[in-house]
Each structure stands twice: as structure tokens, then as C-alpha cells.
Amino acid sequence: MNEKEYSCVRERVCAQEELFLSPYAKRSADTQGRLREESRCGFRTDFQRDRDRIIYSNSFKRLKNKTQVFFAPEGDHYITRLTHTLDVSQIARSIARSLSLNEDLAEAIALGHDLGHTPFGHVGERVLAKLSSRGFMHNEQSLRVVDVIEKGGRGLNLTQEVRDGILNHKSSGKPSTLEGEAVSLADRIAYINHDIEDAIRAGILKAEDLPQDAVALLGNATKERINTAIADIYKTSLGQPYVQMSDEIMQATNRLRAFMFERVYEYANKSIQERSERMLTQLFEYFTAHAEKLPQPYLRLLDRDEKEVVVCDYLSGMTDRYAIGVFESLFIPATFSIGGVT
């Protein structure tokens, strides 16, 4: 079956979008296209294709072994960078569905938003930002991952809308689509609430420690707070050219966020700050001085980018345990035997 014979599947999806999506939604047929022109898939819209490319990328697979907040916790239910990403995707889809936005676009942005995150969570991000003369921000690195690093330097060649949403997912960003705005809010909703669960699980917090004025508005349980946020976004944004929370719910959410920074994030960061900073600093200095030791895919990037940039590419792409393994192999002497005695 050739492309023309099954292109009706994609065309049917585009026709359904035209009928059912909000006038403010981004329709798949109206994409601004890709960095490099390529033929379209017969079955999938461009945004569906982007989602699939992200899911099958190596960077996405590695998220399962990257710290979200708690490093190497004992227990199977702590959030990793991957489970956080899936959480954001689910919330973003719920927001998009309620507002008749493009769910496929929202999902693709959500799945790609943290691909450039470092090992050791935000501690790793701060370390690389300090080490590199060019600075380092995980949202910019996520865009670099999909544009340059994946596929042996070819990148994933995603649509402009997904690229924009990835770059602008932080609260300081200004996404060009409502789907991007939905992901930005979903990210905040997700990390505040699942980090609360992890902090309680770790014994750092008790539920009654949370600011009670915020809890009274948002809810006592995670599912209640997430539902409150999504319902508020729906009521505030339905039929509007924006995706926002009401002032009251946003202020309560920000109170929870500030509380988490004060009581949890600083504590969790301090627990891994010294070790992760030492490891990443020594790895950065080593590979900057010995760039020829970089793995082959990164050696190819040296032909087009500065050494510091490529070293940050390599380090930020590491999982926690891979970074520890490379550090140990370079800086911790292996056991040796003398006269048959180990």
C-alpha cells in the first residue's frame, strides 16, 4: 500500500480536528513545518509523528534513570524524570481535551520537555550552568537534543510547534500555542504534587505540614489538587485565547511551590550537592582537557560546535548511575593484587 492509498487516515484526523477543535487550537494541517522538509506520513499527523519520534528516542529512554528530586531512593514508587514526564503528559492531555485543544501536540511537547535534563536533577543543571562559560538551561538543552544530538547528530526534525513548546515550557517562557501553555501549567501541577508525595514517603514532611490555606482551596490529596487545578483551568480558559488558572488557584499553587522550595527542594539538593558537584566538575574538566576521549557520536559534534558545548551534551545526557560509573572508571583506582594477595 503506497502513501496515497492510506493518506486518507491522516486526512480524516485533520477533518475531525477542523470540526471539533477550538478556534484557538493548533490544527495539525496548519503546522509551520519542520526544520528540514520531508514527506508526510500517511497514517499520522505531523504532531502524532513527533510524539512517536520522541518516545523512541534514546534520550527519552534514559529518563527512567535520572533523578527528579530524590537521588537513589530506597523504594519503587519514587518519581523519576520519566514518571514525571508521563505525569505531565497525562495532565496536559486532560487540559487540552477539556478545552478542545490539540491533544497530540500537547502530548508531544510534554514528552519532550525534559529530554535535556541533567543527571542528579536540578543540582546537576546548576553545576553545568556554573561550569560552562555559555551557561546551561535544561529547556534549551532539550531543544538541542531534538534538533542536534539525537540520531547521530541529525536530530529528530520535529515541527516548529513542538520545538517552541519544549523551549518555552518553563514558567518564564511564552509558548506560541495554547497547547504549549497547557504543558507549562501541567509541568508545574505535576512536579509540585508528586514531589509532595515523595517528600511524605521519605519522611521529610507530614501531610499536616503543608500550608493549610492552600490545601483548603486545592485539596488534601494529590488527586484532589490535580483535579482542582484542571477544573479551574477549564473554567478560566474555556473559549479564551489563553490557558490560565484563576488568580486564587494560582496563588494557592504558588504558596505550595514556595513551601516545597523551602522545606523539601533545598534539603534534597543539599543531600547530593557535594557529591554530584564533585563528580560533574571532575568529569567536565577531564573531557574538556581530553575531548578525544568522548564517545564517537559526540566526537562528530566537535566539527560543528565548541568543545564546552559538546562536553555539556555528553554530561547532561548521562543517567545518574552512568555518570557515577564513568567517574569511578576515571578517578577511582581499581583493586589490584600483589604477590597473589588482593
Give your account of this protein's structure.
- The chain is mainly α and 342 residues long.
- It contains 15 helices and no strands.
Short structural description:
The chain has 342 residues and is mostly helical.
Instruction: List the uncertain runs.
Output: 336-342
Structural class: mainly alpha
Strand content: under 5%
The level of helicity is: 55-70%
* General shape: flat
- End-to-end gap: 65 Å
- Mean pLDDT equals 91
Order of helices and strands: HHHHHHHHHHHHHHH
What is the count of β-strands?
A: 0
**What is the radius of gyration?**
22 Å
In this structure, how is the largest beta sheet organized? none
Question: Layout of SSEs?
Answer:
Layout: H1 3-20, H2 46-55, H3 58-62, H4 81-98, H5 103-112, H6 121-131, H7 138-149, H8 160-167, H9 178-201, H10 212-218, H11 222-237, H12 247-289, H13 296-301, H14 307-317, H15 320-331
Helix pairs in contact: 2-5, 4-5, 4-9, 4-11, 5-8, 5-9, 6-12, 7-8, 8-9, 9-11, 9-12, 10-12, 12-14, 12-15
Question: Which properties best describe this structure?
Answer:
342 residues; mainly alpha
